[in-house]
Amino acid sequence: MEFRSLLDAIKEKDDAKIAHWHDVVSNMMIKYLRTRYKATQQDAEDCTYESMLTIMEMIRDGEEMPGNPGGYLRMTIRNNYFKMKKKNDLKVGDEVLESESNGLDLENSFAKRELMDILNMCVDKLADVSRTFITFFLSRPGIRAEEVAARFDSTLSNVWVKKHRIQKELEECVRKSL
Length: 178
Fold this sequence. Notes:
By secondary structure, this protein is an all-alpha fold. The protein has helices at 2-12, 15-37, 41-60, 69-100, 105-125, 128-138, 145-151, 156-177. It has two domains: 1-100; 103-178, Orthogonal Bundle (Arc Repressor Mutant, subunit A). It starts with a helix and ends with a helix.
């Protein structure tokens, strides 16, 4: 029912309703991932945001939703969560392998330090507002999006959009600098 209301608001281009229903549906989907799959708050928020953004763009582009839009949303969020877990598990596995090889510890330390220097340089290149926002996130690992929204006097959906865009900008900057 709530997702159908969000779909209607998007089709009507009613920004106030979109913001309201987006927050309602997002909170439901975060709870779904946390309860059903034991996702962390941050992982649940990230997967929900990515999925909601994709689906909202589909609707705005005129694509039709399947017969059961709520089921489609849950399936999309679940699949994004599993993809993210698989990607993160590979990273964890790689780190374990690296830490077990004694000869590479010093080299890894230098590489991590160089990567952090590049990241800091990229953060410095951001606009002041973006730099303040992402620095706030980075200095508080595990902070909930609700707290960030309150701090920056913003909606949850705006916090996720801003975080996602800044992350993409930083990823691009780091790639270009490597």
